[in-house]
Amino acid sequence: MSQPILELKELDVFYGPIQALKGVSLHINEGETVSLIGSNGAGKSTLLMSIFGQPRAADGQILYQGVDITHKSSHYIASNGIAQSPEGRRVFPDMTVEENLLMGTIPIGDKYAKEDMQRMFELFPRLEERRTQRAMTMSGGEQQMLAIARALMSRPKLLLLDEPSLGLAPIVVKQIFATLRELAKTGMTIFLVEQNANHALRLSDRAYVMVNGEIRMTGTGKELLVNEDVRNAYLGGH
Question: I need a surface site. Which of 1, 33, 120, 191 has the fewest CB within 10 A?
Fold first, then answer.
């Protein structure tokens, strides 16, 4: 059996005296889409950020392609094939769409910038329409597309997505997840943190459920979609 592309082993993370993650273990195989669902404040975003060392793990291990990256710098992690689209989008507001996309090439250099930018415009046609527009003048949905596209500009082997549906209209959420489905079909490895459990589980090969900083349940996306506890807690009983 092949080695997971990402493996977390007994991860403990603290914010000051407060323990945010408690002995978290999970893995992601190459080419998989894996989601982490749970209520607000469960520790999902903390887990994603801890992969980049912000905050650092107090105990446990983070292995990427078999290499221990627990104490590696964020630059090392980004330049070795992990990219993150952060919660709240965090685009560069005064920069144009094109300039934001170019910022995504910093970990790998701009050798492929032109062809990759064209690929992003094919993936997100709205961005091509807005290519010379400043990011701050765009809608929330367009900014989310830009944040994902910027992450993809570093040609990642593993894409981390933190709450891509947050604050977006339902029709835009559908568009975003349709694009993620297309990305998954290309073999992209995706780790998705998402409050919208319905969309996340439908997209995912496997998923983990986090409660109060601990993994409480795991299974395939299909299994968790029909699990009664998951349905009652995260899917409104439907």
Answer: 1
